Amino acid sequence: MSNNTIIIRYGEIHLKGKNRGVFEKKLINNIKYSLVDITCKLVVDRGRYRIVDYDINHQNQIVEKLSKVYGIHSISIGLISKSDIDSLSIACINGFGGGSFKVETNRADKSYPLTSYQVSAQVGAKILNSCKDSIVDIHNPKHIFYIDIRSNDYSLVYTQIVKGQGGLPYGTAGRGLLLLSGGIDSPVAGYKISKRGLQLVAVHFWSYPYTSVQAKQKVEKLTLILSNYCPDISLYIVNSTNLQQAIKQYCDDEYIITILRRCMLKIAKQLTIKLNLDCIITGESLGQVASQTLDSLNVSNNAIVDIPILRPLISMDKQEIIEIAKEIDTYQTSILPYEDCCTVFMPKKPIIHPTRDRAILNENKIPNLNELIDEAVNQTLQTTNQKIVKQLN
User: 222-272 pLDDT, tens per residue?
Assistant: First the structure.
């Protein structure tokens, strides 16, 4: 007797000791949420979860959804079988068209009377006798039959292992505010840090009419793509037009981007506090552009001192970031030719090595800077619909 199942394995949760139950509970909830629109059942076993009672036509769709759930190490489509040699052999032979093969057995049930090697040998012999065009090749087989012997006289049989996202279950490491620019880097930063369990709220700085409606729609699309990995991510839009006009009017040209970055972080700090978040996340990579030199980052950091700023991409080069953007399907949206607020107000020669004193001197030139920052924060909280991603769905 055998039936269809999808096997889910988790990875890093194994290391969590006494806190393991908390992480497992969150992973289970996230798995159920990812499959909420598919009729199926989740069976929870120690070290293995299984999806059962599903329409076979939804099998690939289930695997695709599970492959985006943080905390899952790997996934396999398989069969549930009784643990006797005949049943295991039938499960392996089912659908096998011949070719080179080997059998690998994991004996999780240590009370099972045969060793892993004995199971592999006996099942392999039956496959060899039943399939005329088959041949054993333990070094470079075309097919591998995996047998996982569990307790209570049942085993799992499968032939492929699909890599999962790994990391920690989403929502187990606090909540953070992602500065989402619309470029290539910041969506990847959000993906990377949420893979460590951080729950995300996104914020975008929009300078209409200097930046277009299409630029905002681009960021909404990026947020929607990220929602495949961060299911409850929301998006806030900050209208930064008045602030950027004031910076352009009063500040030294070479310091425009430096002051804008500092003001963005000051606004982000207020939003972080008001939304009860724990940190700020940016897509900066050391030395990539003028605003990301070590001096520039230090001057930006000095704008806020009591909120952590996380930079998941800090040591990555551009090509590495692009490759991840392509993997998570944000790249083609990120390169759409709609400028963000930083690009529109870019000076001819931004300073590479700013100083904190000159930055503060430039900020003090703006007569109503604090009022402009407060205005941007208050308008954002009053006018932005936090459910924007759900509406896009």
Answer: 999 999 999 999 999 999 999 999 999 999 999 999 999 999 999 999 999
Predicted structure pTM score: 0.90
Q: Which helix (H) or strand (E) holds 90?
A: helix 85-93
> What is the rounded CA–CA span in Å between residue 220 and residue 235?
8
Alpha carbon distances (Å) from 376 to 202, 215, 272, 343: 16, 19, 14, 19
Distance CA 83, CA 160 (A): 20
Contact 207, 240 (CB under 8 A): yes
Calculate the alpha carbon distances from 132 to 97, 136, 141, 382 in Å. 9, 12, 16, 72
**N-to-C CA span, the chain:** 41
Tokens of 26: 């969150």
Handedness of CA 335, 336, 338, 341 (dihedral sign): negative
Q: CA torsion angle for 207, 210, 212, 216 (degrees, to 10)?
A: -20
266 touches 306 (CB < 8 A)? no
Task: With CA atoms as reference, report the closest residue to 145 among 115, 102, 116.
Answer: 102
Cβ–Cβ under 8 Å, residues 311 and 280: no
- Do 286 and 315 touch, CB atoms closer than 8 A? yes
d(CA 221, CA 228): 12
Give the tokens for residue 7: 């096997």
Amino acid identity, position 353: H
**How, if at all, do strands 72-81 and 99-107 pair?**
unpaired
Report, as an integer, the average pLDDT of 52-68. 96
What is the SS3 assignment for 44-64?
EECCEEEEECCCHHHHHHHHH
Contact 338, 215 (CB under 8 A): yes
Please, which residues have CB within 8 angstroms of residue 116's CB and are 6 or more apart in sequence?
Answer: 105, 106, 107
| Cis peptide preceding 209, ω within 30 of 0 | yes
